[in-house]
């Protein structure tokens, strides 16, 4: 009989939706699923949202106090979908209560918090996943496969971007994402870290960084609603404004431990770019290019093709590629956000049930925080800064 | 309290999965949902698949006899996900039992069947939906909005394609999709009808057609497994072959009742094209281009832009576009197959609960069968053939 | 010592420029050139244009009477760059005077004229070239090479387009291109024939056609200037209008003698499309896609690539491809209109000097006229019409 | 009567061809041309090449000694198309002889040389042009126009690339481009400077840079031919190798004086990229993206478009855009390398004849050398380095 795991979801916003869809859909894609997931309880400090979340995402119970969940012995998994500043406390309590933890990114608001969280997972021996879901796009998994097989040789250099435009309007409201106390960092933690995760995954560990960070729009109107509308609700310019306390542009150079060099650029102010996660990697034997806005495809050039017919191949992921037998039977039926979350969910649950390593886990998430710390430091010193690398 | 509707699913293959994911996910996207859907029973004539389907797709019960479902007074919705030749009988019984019917496409294997099915829905006053899901892609819905608003003026001409390559290898096995008795037609019904549906939806009713159909690969190896692998399992060339009895290339010209002229091309033998559903529509005031392989985007050119800055705009669908508040909060987080099925599911359920018109319903599905009939006739007579148009 | 050929250019408009640039540049690309071309005399019935043409395009002499050129024993090549209705008379006189003829497309305004012209070339043994220059794009030449080598197998089906938008505005002036007496046909001869030429070249001879032609904009304002501005000069809507006597939309299906089936679509009213010459060809072993608006590239999918790394390869033409050693030393330095005309010029001159076959020559041009005739007939009969095929 | 200018061309390789084509074609595009150019004499130290150059590029005379040209009172323009280390001496002599100088890029092998060259032009009052031709692409000129009109607001950040792959193979021969004594720098001067030029032109003067440079392939086989085949001739791996003394990867961050921040990446080792000159510029009111491999197009997003129809517009340059009336009458007939050189040539000749400022001139070229110097210094110090900015 299929195992069942009880989930306690902390937070009832957009990410709660994404995770809930994954919990119910995953077993339909992965059969037999390592476990079925029971959506036991959802928590939001806002009672209205908690109740609505229970209905909307089909949980059995709701609460306004996350401690109810963390201390409930029925709960196997604590799923943290609240703003960044709350991750640490919840995760620490959950780990101590021996819950497996699925944590939204970034993992914490400081590397100190992250290290403590990671150390706790070792002590209490729980499984973790940090929700850097974009690396689960089948096309990215295929890039990984090609790189690991040596198909593009040794990696020489790379470029990554994550560009959006939802905050480009100065009257986009002052979401919690612009408040350092809650978010820790701005564009860096919010989206830059996704590309850091992908590049670490594909290229290797970071050694040094050299960063530039800026806050172009220095104040924004207060928003009159609590939920995070990601700037889509443009305010009247007469509304009272308060300071933005985080970066909204971030650009850094990276030296990897294996010698590869590259840059990552992140902004939410790039008019016309919506979810423009791209990477281009050049190796001694080939190149790879990916653009998430066109995510069913990956472009790969193999040096050993004959010169007259060499060029980027546009490979459309499907049954012949990673997780191909689990997803849809025809390539380009369509990979959406949902599918990336379903794969992420599968790997986490599979890790728990079959005691397999998960990735990106709290080690990876913590390492990303250490990279962010070096980035921030470099943006202040205007110098190359070493990245502290934890031993695993 | 939220209404609940009981579904009986007939068929336990790929489409059963897509529909099941939609049933559980829809209420998380559309809140409050018009109803929650209870996956009551799944049927497959193959007992193993029926049992597995129950587990995989989380139904309460399973059966090998679809009559169990149709005659169960608890069942509100009969969802038909079996090969084409079985649609008619099941749907007729379901309709007579006053069930709402969600039917995979094409709706039937002849227009005679389809007309009878449609007439029955009028008599028994049930809601129907035919699963031409691609028109539910937000980018296609946006195209519809622009066209209805007159933003591209009167439509002059158009071109549609649906190209795949899973049957291009002559050793791709003889799926039921190559057997006229089961499928009715080949590429025409299987994929061509999706584009017919989109063009009818965007451009208008068809008046005459002029078609060319061919069977390039005249026999294929018998497949030793029952499930339809869509050609991904290439057989050894020594396996016994049997005749293909349907078209595998189809190309037709269309005169619409409003004077628009265009062509549609469909094949599953176009190496490199995977799910290449495209349309390009030229109007007196602008043009629209869509490519489903890059489905978060639509390209629109408006004639009234100043000449020095006129060009196709690549609009990435998101919160500012159809169903934007229901889907994901940032454009290009990613529309996949799942999202198209969720919208389709919502519209069907909403139609049932709130007595709203659904589309494409059995009228549309039937009209598409009449178009197919004219296409087939034209491919035989090599002449323009009138399309019979039903009164609604 | 390098041979020198004297050219007499008839017409002093846009095409005279393109040809003149080619004449002076060709020997810099092809060294040693088969001959240098001496721009001896340019003719325009408009004295002002003739004089200006002499200066602008650096001819030795000018004239207002093309007979001066045709009868000048110094002239080796007569280059016909005047409107279509004048081609026949000039070419016939030139051929009879044993001049080699470079003729703008379409070759004539009827197949009767074209046949006579072709027959004359056989009788007088002169070299000819019809200026279907787009097939000289290196990417198209590479497509030809792949097809001839069998790299995409037997051709099954294809699609071609030529879409522009310069006549989409109803107030674009009544150029001679809208006057049947001068142009013979409208969009069909003006641009559709370029795609006919490319498809004939790549796929094979046409057997039957089934066509639809329309005139969307039935009258246009008279233009007050003689030169053809191709609709870029939008007139005031109060200007007197006169009827358009040719087609401005053309769409036809083709059965080739080798069994391949396809369609070609041509319009100058497709907002946003500027010079959208595309073709897509599906064969038993691969596919090719080309879009002239992005002409340095061609996309090719080879079926025999392993399934997990199969996809369209974007090949950028350069030194490893046709005429690669003559053009630029790095791919994508840039192929423009000029380069296509230079290759065309080289092949014509090389044909003359070294008695090599030229292509497309008057045989090809004549065959295209026969195809046009069948297209026009089919658009009138609404039936498939046979294409008369000349013996060479 | 049209003025005539006599050109002395120094160097008979690839660039001599490009310039020669421009000289003869320019007056056919720009009518009346400011002057006709008489190709008087061509020089190459290799007598064979000099003689061949005379024939090939249609010069009146040839020589093996550039001093013949510089001291010839008939010569108006000295056109320097030799390797970088020879620019300084030739240019200085030419300037002192009051010749106008058209110089291939980079302008010199050190900023010291470049400053002296620039100062001399002020003293002797001659016109200059440095051949950064890519900024003459009509799409780039259109970007400039939009930026100057404020259409994308204040520029916030940008990214530029110039990627090729002709040196990616370790057995690509040791061209002079890999020899510091001749070339000064490697990828930086050879191609990186083109993007520096474009960004300076579009965004503004550089203030500080932070650079990383590497030499991936540290030795290469000696080439047995003198002409520079740009790596297209792959050597046998047994051939003797000698050290590469320049960079083959270069990546730098830039702070502009106006506050804009960005990065530029250049390599000739990026498999699959051929002439991948791209830039993306984000401003407060819009964004611009350009890719030279698809150079007839530019993509622009305007923030003030309504949200539901906002997106990158793909504008295809033609008659409605810069130099539109001079080039081809229909957009996307095709801008190639030739067209960029023709515009460059026109602006230089127009500057000489009508005493107009030219751009990029020796001031710009010199400033680019100063930027390169700061880049090289930064790559050594691993720190931000100030760019010296000359007064004009």
Net shape of chain A: globular
H/E order of the elements of chain A?
EHEHEHEHEHEHEHHEEEEEEEEEHHE
CATH class of the largest domain in chain A: Alpha Beta
Domain tally of chain A: 2
Question: Strand order within the widest sheet of chain A?
Answer: 16-15-14-13-7-12-11-8-17
The CATH superfamily of the largest domain in chain A is known as Dihydrodipicolinate Reductase, domain 2
What number is the mean pLDDT of chain A? Answer: 95
Structural class of chain A: alpha/beta
Annotation field: number of helices of chain A: 10
Oligomerization status of the protein chains: homotetramer
The helix fraction of chain A, in percent, is 25-40%
Termini Cα gap of chain A: 35 Å
Number of strands of chain A: 17
Classify the fold: give the CATH topology of the largest domain in chain A: Dihydrodipicolinate Reductase, domain 2
| Sheet with most strands of chain A | 9 strands, mixed
Indicate the proportion of strand residues of chain A.
Answer: 15-25%
Computed over alpha carbons, the radius of gyration of chain A is 21 Å
What does this structure look like?
The structure is a homotetramer of 392-residue chains. Chain A has 392 residues and is an alpha/beta fold. Chain A has two domains: 4-133, NAD(P)-binding Rossmann-like Domain (Rossmann fold, 3-Layer(aba) Sandwich), CATH 3.40.50; 135-385, Dihydrodipicolinate Reductase, domain 2 (2-Layer Sandwich). Chain A is 32% helix and 24% strand. Chain A has helices spanning 14-29, 47-57, 66-70, 87-96, 111-124, 138-148, 180-183, 187-202, 337-354, 362-381; strands at residues 4-10, 36-43, 61-63, 77-80, 100-103, 128-130, 155-163, 206-214, 219-221, 241-243, 249-256, 261-267, 276-283, 286-291, 297-302, 312-316, 385-386. In chain A, strands 16-15-14-13-7-12-11-8-17 form a nine-stranded mixed sheet. In chain A, strands 3-2-1-4-5-6 form a six-stranded parallel sheet, sandwiched between helices. The first copy, chain A, has a two-stranded antiparallel sheet with strand order 9-10. The longest helix of chain A is centred in the C-terminal third of the chain and has 20 residues, at 362-381. The first copy, chain A, is globular and about 65 Å long. The mean pLDDT of chain A is 95. Chains in contact: A-B, A-C, A-D, B-C, B-D, C-D. Chains C and D meet through helix 1, helix 2 and helix 9 of C and helix 1, helix 2 and helix 9 of D.
